[in-house]
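hey can u check if this looks right to u? its 46 residues, i copy pasted from the old doc so theres a chance i mangled smth
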Amino acid sequence: MSNIQQFQYDNKITRAFGMASFIWGVVGMLVGLILALQARFSCPEL
C-alpha cells in the first residue's frame, strides 16, 4: 500500500536555454576570431 507520487518534469526550457547558450558561444568565438584575424592582417607590424 505505497502511495508514491510520480512527477514528470518538462525539460524543454532547460534544453532551449542550453542550445541558445551554445549558439551564442559559437557566435562569440567566431566574432572574436574574425576580429583577431582582421587586426593581424590589417596591421602587419603588430
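The mean pLDDT is 89.
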